TrEMBL record, chain A:
This is acetolactate synthase. It holds the Pfam family ALS_ss_C. PANTHER family: ACETOLACTATE SYNTHASE SMALL SUBUNIT, ACETOLACTATE SYNTHASE SMALL SUBUNIT 1, CHLOROPLASTIC. Dimer of large and small chains. Pathway: Amino-acid biosynthesis; L-isoleucine biosynthesis; L-isoleucine from 2-oxobutanoate: step 1/4; Amino-acid biosynthesis; L-valine biosynthesis; L-valine from pyruvate: step 1/4. GO terms for molecular function: acetolactate synthase activity; acetolactate synthase regulator activity. It comes from Pedobacter westerhofensis. Residues 17-91 form the ACT domain.
UniProtKB/TrEMBL annotation, chain B:
Binds 1 thiamine pyrophosphate per subunit. Residues 21-136 form the Thiamine pyrophosphate enzyme N-terminal TPP-binding domain. This is Acetolactate synthase. One of its GO terms (cellular component) is acetolactate synthase complex. Belongs to the TPP enzyme family. Residues 408-555 form the Thiamine pyrophosphate enzyme TPP-binding domain. Gene3D superfamilies: 3.40.50.970, TPP-binding domain.
Length: 206, 579
């Protein structure tokens, strides 16, 4: 699951991305959120949006914790009636991105050629240009979106917003086939995985 | 699976419907689920349901409690003795918030409840309307599931889900909040269809044979195996399967307070109670066993004491229906996920029939020490002040282990659990995980409805009794035959014990005065008696038990008596103190 021995022992904190598939039900966000707040664990970023499957939502929750704690949290989340499946992954196991928007005065961008160069270097795209302001967009890891803040700050950055992390699990085979299993009265064993049997896998599940 | 033709036929013939209100659909659903008794309290936002139940008095027995918290506890008592789902009605706002303690208790002790709360009109949600409270969010952490109904047509399916979730898997409390408009609204009712599947919910994990085999191998090779069992055995109705497993394996078995009675107190392999005030042997031997088999128990901190010194030498086999319990507190070497009613017979089939005489003799030796140094003095002091232990002991002689013992929380609870004789399952009702003072009296009311043919004795302290004594009114009004046994030490005894042992006797607000309990009972037309002398104890208990109907017996016990053995907080179980 990870390179460091400490992390294998489960007692060293690192970033975990928890992916949760849930029914689209009012209240489930609160039920999941209080599992963290009850234990005084801060959610660093949270994305909830419809998944590729109708009526099913996908959460991406980013926390910094030990593997032991994350496993327990994952099981508590999966225990919720309206939760279908929980995965917890280290950064090695996932591909992730964050989206950021930057609002800067148009006059500065228009006047200062090197701003344009900086933006290009940082992979920013223009979303809108108005008389008073221009909005740029970048996607990337936290450090990348942070860097562009620093770059734009001297040039009158008016407003900045960043999305939560969204992540794809490298080893995932998708959720469609699993869902069909859940819909059966007696789901097969392949979907009710057991983490104790699947230790060698990068994805641990309930 | 329906064939296409059948499906088409069903579609062609529209289902017969009747036009009913949401309230009627609710009551019809409750009846379809086998509900007979409801514990509740009316109020503005649940009035349409109460109007409907007026016409259902012959089918549904509604017990009007005196406080909504007690409706929840009564439903818990009912669920514990009957094995069925307890049903509660309460109104919005304060009615709903008053349920929270009961829900929290039921959640931590895995008790199946379906609570129906009234809610303000859907159009008023979020306006701070009269008696509006956000009960869905307030109750989220203390319910297994909850749901707000705003349209009558949702009621049958929501109720079916509620019952299914409450009783399946690891049971727990469920709350359905129904807005007043939905209760009144007329809709086309198609009848009630019970729920047996929710795609996002798996009540039990699939049993994996590899773990059964690994567990059996460990058990077969063990020299000092030790069984710890909890309420899971009762909740899974696996008492017979458990007994077969214990007897074939010949392994000594100790219980958590919620597991009490899964095998009879007198069973030769029942070695006693675990935990802070459990028996000497089971606590000490926890740190000597080589294989620990935990069945339907969750390693609560009151059972384990200091975790880093808990059974470190042992291989742990953990049988549990709830995957979240595996490795939560104690790391399992072999996790046997599943319903113990299924896993235990599989395990029993693979184990060799053995006796562990030398190992059992060690338990006997510890038991002898505990008997001589402690239990004898506690149960038969002969002189001096009355002890709680001797009251329970005399009660055992009279009930012969056939009565339901409901206890409240505190010293008397530990004594009742330690010494109460239980011949069979579902005879002990207590607030284990939450430790809710005031639980005893209302739970006893419910316990009586759950086990109408048994004597139900509520053993309560003078402190806890004063938390919910208004339920004497319920007992009076509905003629509930509950025997109330108050063990009065004129203190909040457990806190006083801790203050004596750990706070240099700085008795801070533990000195509690009581009203005249017998007079109080009398004002509710409940017969009563007060016992202060030893020679009056047995006649008093006899009078209580033989009295037709409820009775309150107050026994004045030693003021500053401590419950031992005790594993002090922060100590290892093997550091258990006998004095």
């Amino acid at each position: 699951m990870s390179d460091s021995k400490d992390i294998e022992l489960g007692n060293s904190k690192q970033e975990f991305t928890i992916t949760v598939y849930t029914e689209n039900q009012i209240g489930i966000l609160n039920r999941i959120a209080i599992i963290f707040s009850r234990r005084k664990i801060n959610i660093e970023s949270l994305n909830v949006s419809p998944s590729e499957i109708e009526h099913i939502h996908r959460f991406n929750i980013l926390i910094t914790e030990t593997e032991d704690v994350v496993k327990k949290l994952a099981r508590q989340i999966e225990k919720q009636v309206e939760v279908l499946k929980v995965y917890a992954n280290t950064n090695d196991d996932i591909i992730w991105q964050e989206l950021a928007l930057y609002k800067v005065p148009t006059e500065i961008v228009a006047e200062k050629v090197f701003v344009e160069r900086l933006l290009r270097e940082n992979g920013a795209r223009v979303v809108v240009i108005r008389k008073n302001y221009t909005i740029f967009e970048t996607t990337g890891h936290r450090s990348e979106t942070d860097k562009l803040i620093e770059v734009l700050q001297p040039y009158g950055l008016i407003e900045f917003v960043r999305s939560a992390r969204v992540a794809i699990i490298k080893d995932s085979e998708g959720f469609n086939s699993k869902l069909r299993e859940f819909e059966r009265l007696e789901p097969g064993q392949e979907v009710i995985e057991n983490e104790f049997l699947d230790k060698e896998k990068n994805v641990f599940t309930m | 699976m329906e064939t296409v033709q059948e499906e088409a036929a069903t579609l062609a013939q529209p289902k017969k419907t009747t036009t009913v209100t949401g309230s009627v659909a609710l009551l019809e659903g409750l009846i379809a689920e086998g509900t007979e008794t409801i514990f509740g309290y009316p109020g503005g936002a649940i009035m349409p349901i109460y109007d409907a139940i007026y016409d259902y008095k012959d089918k549904l027995n509604h017990i009007l409690v005196r406080h909504e918290q007690c409706a929840a506890h009564a439903a818990q008592g009912f669920a514990r003795t009957s094995g069925k789902v307890g049903v509660v009605f309460a109104t919005s706002g304060p009615g709903a918030t008053n349920l929270i303690t009961g829900l929290a208790d039921a959640q931590i002790d895995s008790t199946p409840l379906v609570c129906i709360t009234g809610q303000v009109f859907a159009t008023l949600l979020g306006t701070d309307a009269f008696q509006e409270t956000d009960v869905i969010n307030i109750s989220a952490p203390v319910t297994k599931w909850n749901y707000q109904v705003t349209d009558a047509s949702e009621i049958p399916a929501a109720l079916a889900k509620a019952f299914y979730i409450a009783r399946s898997g690891r049971p727990g409390p469920v709350l359905i909040d129904i807005t007043k408009n939905a209760q009144m609204q007329l809709f086309e009712y198609e009848g009630y269809t019970p729920c047996n599947h929710i795609r996002s919910y798996r009540p039990k994990p699939i049993v994996r044979n590899e773990y059964i085999e690994q567990a059996a191998a460990l058990i077969n090779s063990a020299k000092k195996p030790f069984i710890l069992f909890g309420q899971g055995v009762l909740l899974g109705s696996a008492e017979q399967e458990f007994k077969a497993f214990v007897e074939k394996s010949g392994i000594p078995a100790a219980w958590t307070i919620l597991g009490a009675g899964a095998i009879p107190t007198d069973h030769p392999l029942n070695v006693g109670m675990l935990g802070m005030h459990g028996n000497y042997g089971p606590n000490v031997q926890t740190n000597s066993c080589d294989v620990m088999i935990a069945i339907g128990m969750r390693f609560d901190d009151r059972v384990t004491g200091r975790l880093d010194k808990y059974a470190k030498q042992a291989k742990v086999v953990h049988l549990d229906i709830d995957p979240a319990e595996i490795d939560k507190n104690v790391k399992a070497d072999v996790p046997v996920w599943g319903d113990c009613k299924e896993t235990l017979p599989l395990l029993t089939a693979l184990i060799t029939e053995r006796t562990h005489e030398a190992w059992l003799a060690e338990f006997k030796a510890f038991e002898k020490i505990e008997q001589e140094e402690l239990i004898q003095k506690e149960l038969d002091p002969q002189t001096g002040e009355l002890t709680m232990g001797e009251v329970i002991n005399q009660l055992n002689f009279l009930t012969k282990g056939e009565a339901v013992i409901v206890s409240d929380v505190g010293q008397h609870q530990m004594v009742a659990c330690r010494y109460g004789k239980l011949n069979t399952t579902r005879l002990s009702v207590t607030s284990g995980g939450l430790g809710t003072m005031g639980f005893g009296l209302p739970a006893a009311i419910g316990a009586k409805f759950g086990a109408p043919n048994r004597t139900v004795i509520a053993v309560i302290g003078d402190g806890g009794f004063q938390m919910t004594l208004q339920e004497l009114g319920t007992i009076m009004q509905f003629g509930v035959d509950v025997k109330i046994l108050i063990l009065n030490n004129q203190f909040l005894g457990m806190v006083r014990q801790w203050q004596q042992l750990f706070n240099e006797k700085r008795y801070s607000f533990v000195d509690i005065t009581s009203p005249d309990f017998v007079k109080l009972a009398d004002s509710y037309s409940i017969a009563g008696k007060r016992v202060t002398e030893r020679e009056d104890l047995i006649p008093g208990l006899e009078e209580m038990l033989s009295n037709p109907g409820s009775f309150l017996l107050e026994v004045m016990v030693a003021k500053e008596h401590n419950v031992f053995p005790m594993v002090p907080q922060g100590s290892s179980v093997s550091e258990i103190r006998l004095k």
